[in-house]
Amino acid sequence: MTRRIYDFRCPGGHVVEKFIDDSVTQVDCEICQQSSTRLVSFAGPVLDVISGHFPSATMRWAKDRQEKIKAERRATELHGPAEI
Ligand SMILES: [Zn+2]
Protein backbone atom coordinates (compact mmCIF):
# COMPACT_ATOMS: atom_id res chain seq x y z
CA MET A 1 0.00 0.00 0.00
CA THR A 2 1.59 3.24 -1.14
CA ARG A 3 0.31 6.62 -0.24
CA ARG A 4 1.25 9.72 -2.10
CA ILE A 5 -0.08 13.09 -3.03
CA TYR A 6 -2.62 13.29 -5.80
CA ASP A 7 -4.74 16.06 -7.18
CA PHE A 8 -8.42 15.39 -7.72
CA ARG A 9 -10.69 17.51 -9.85
CA CYS A 10 -14.47 17.49 -9.82
CA PRO A 11 -16.84 18.44 -12.66
CA GLY A 12 -17.24 21.82 -10.98
CA GLY A 13 -13.55 22.54 -11.47
CA HIS A 14 -12.49 22.33 -7.83
CA VAL A 15 -9.07 20.81 -7.37
CA VAL A 16 -8.15 19.23 -4.07
CA GLU A 17 -4.81 17.77 -3.10
CA LYS A 18 -4.94 14.57 -1.11
CA PHE A 19 -2.36 12.33 0.49
CA ILE A 20 -4.05 9.09 -0.31
CA ASP A 21 -3.58 5.43 -1.17
CA ASP A 22 -2.61 5.13 -4.80
CA SER A 23 -5.41 2.65 -5.50
CA VAL A 24 -7.95 5.41 -4.90
CA THR A 25 -8.90 7.07 -8.16
CA GLN A 26 -12.07 8.87 -7.10
CA VAL A 27 -13.08 10.91 -4.09
CA ASP A 28 -16.02 13.15 -3.30
CA CYS A 29 -15.33 16.83 -3.80
CA GLU A 30 -15.08 18.54 -0.42
CA ILE A 31 -16.76 21.62 -1.81
CA CYS A 32 -19.64 20.42 -3.97
CA GLN A 33 -19.73 16.69 -3.13
CA GLN A 34 -19.53 15.61 -6.75
CA SER A 35 -17.17 12.77 -7.59
CA SER A 36 -13.70 14.04 -8.32
CA THR A 37 -11.35 12.10 -10.54
CA ARG A 38 -7.65 11.76 -9.95
CA LEU A 39 -5.41 13.82 -12.16
CA VAL A 40 -2.59 11.84 -13.69
CA SER A 41 -0.28 14.81 -14.00
CA PHE A 42 1.57 14.17 -10.77
CA ALA A 43 4.89 15.92 -11.13
CA GLY A 44 6.92 13.41 -9.15
CA PRO A 45 10.14 11.92 -10.44
CA VAL A 46 9.64 8.90 -12.68
CA LEU A 47 12.13 6.88 -10.63
CA ASP A 48 9.71 6.80 -7.71
CA VAL A 49 7.45 4.52 -9.69
CA ILE A 50 10.15 1.87 -9.57
CA SER A 51 10.96 2.07 -5.87
CA GLY A 52 7.33 2.49 -4.86
CA HIS A 53 8.21 3.31 -1.27
CA PHE A 54 8.24 6.74 0.27
CA PRO A 55 8.46 8.71 -2.96
CA SER A 56 11.15 11.33 -2.59
CA ALA A 57 8.83 13.99 -3.90
CA THR A 58 6.41 13.22 -1.11
CA MET A 59 9.17 13.24 1.47
CA ARG A 60 10.52 16.48 0.09
CA TRP A 61 7.07 17.98 0.16
CA ALA A 62 6.62 16.98 3.80
CA LYS A 63 10.06 18.29 4.68
CA ASP A 64 9.53 21.58 2.89
CA ARG A 65 6.26 21.94 4.71
CA GLN A 66 7.89 21.33 8.07
CA GLU A 67 10.69 23.75 7.28
CA LYS A 68 8.18 26.36 6.28
CA ILE A 69 6.16 25.93 9.46
CA LYS A 70 9.36 26.08 11.50
CA ALA A 71 10.49 29.23 9.73
CA GLU A 72 7.14 30.88 10.25
CA ARG A 73 7.14 29.95 13.91
CA ARG A 74 10.65 31.36 14.29
CA ALA A 75 9.61 34.58 12.58
CA THR A 76 6.69 34.89 14.98
CA GLU A 77 8.98 34.35 17.97
CA LEU A 78 11.46 36.95 16.77
CA HIS A 79 9.07 39.63 15.68
CA GLY A 80 5.90 38.75 17.49
CA PRO A 81 2.52 38.64 15.84
CA ALA A 82 2.07 41.12 13.03
CA GLU A 83 1.23 44.52 14.44
CA ILE A 84 -0.81 47.13 12.70
ZN1 LIG B 1 -16.41 20.46 -6.57
Outline the structure in words.
The protein has 84 residues and is of the alpha+beta class. The chain has two domains: 42 residues, Rubrerythrin, domain 2 (Single Sheet); 37 residues, no CATH class. A four-stranded antiparallel β-sheet has the order 2-1-4-3, with no helix packed on it. The longest helix is centred in the C-terminal third of the chain and has 24 residues. It is flat. The model has no long low-confidence stretch (mean pLDDT 79). The structure holds zinc ion. The site of zinc ion has 7 residues, from loops. Zinc ion binds next to loops.
Arithmetic mean of pLDDT:
79
For the largest beta-sheet, the strand count, sense and barrel status come to: 4 strands, antiparallel
Strand content: 25-35%
Question: Can you identify the CATH class of the largest domain?
Answer: Mainly Beta
- The total count of strands amounts to 4
Cα end-to-end separation: 49 Å
Helix content: 25-40%
CATH architectural type of the largest domain: Single Sheet
Give the number of helices: 2
The SS-based structural class is: alpha+beta
Q: Name every ligand kind in the structure.
A: zinc ion
Cα-atom radius of gyration: 17 Å
What is the N-to-C order of secondary-structure elements (H for helix, E for strand)? Answer: EEEEHH
Shape from CA axes?
A: flat
**Count of the separate structural domains:** 2
CATH topology name of the largest domain: Rubrerythrin, domain 2
Which parts are unreliable, with pLDDT below 50 for 5 consecutive residues or more? none
Task: Tell me the strand order in the biggest sheet.
Answer: 2-1-4-3
